[in-house]
Amino acid sequence: MIRIRHARDTDAPLLPAIERSSGEIFRLSPGLEWIADDEVQTEQRHRALIADGLALVAELPDYGIVAFLNGEVEPDALHIWQMSVHLDRQRRGIGRRLIDAALRFATDHGVAALTLTTFRDVPWNEPYYQRLGFITLGDGDLCPRLRAVLGAEEQAGLPKARRCAMRKRL
Q: Cβ distance 49 to 69 under 8 Å?
């Protein structure tokens, strides 16, 4: 039985390895294989989001933490920075459970939407989030915050043409 809970500071050292494992699936995505070896969120970044943002983990009894979702409440939305599921536990509904928990958090805190950025043409990215009710935003629909996030991603080396911002209104 999977348990979703708020992350604790003591969980932070475990989370970069989960993100690294999660990224292994990009080895199957032409042109994006390099992401499997790219940088992940640091332990310090996880600690900051645990302290001041939203940080959730998915835990299995007798196994431990297998996934996480983190983000920050912005004036217009809860922005999801990262969701990662350990490669050995993907495709079992854990990501959906984390998104559902983020939705409950947002609703409980009076937040009107969830936002995120992701890859357009990767099955476990844009199409996955569309199945969960997110809509892809066109350039004209981007608020300055999301435009800045996409710009920062481009500066970090992510291919602009393959990235998009998405929103799910609550």
A: no
Rounded Cα distance, 126 and 133, in Å: 11
Largest distance between two CA atoms of the chain:
48
Strand 3-6 to 54-60 pairing = antiparallel
Q: What is the pLDDT of residues 1-19, one digit of tens each?
A: 899 999 999 999 999 999 9
If we measure between CA atoms, which residue out of 91, 162, 84, 92 comes closest to residue 121?
162
pLDDT in tens, 79-127: 999 999 998 988 889 999 999 999 999 999 999 999 999 999 898 899 9
- How far CA 90 is from CA of 15, 58, 87, in Å, comes to 15, 12, 5
- The CATH number of whichever domain residue 143 belongs to comes to 3.40.630.30
Is residue 130 over pLDDT 90?
A: yes
DSSP 48: H
Q: How many domains does the chain have?
A: 1
Domain that holds residue 62: 3-169
Q: Answer whether 96's CB lies under 8 Å from 112's CB.
A: no
Specify the DSSP class assigned to residue 156. T
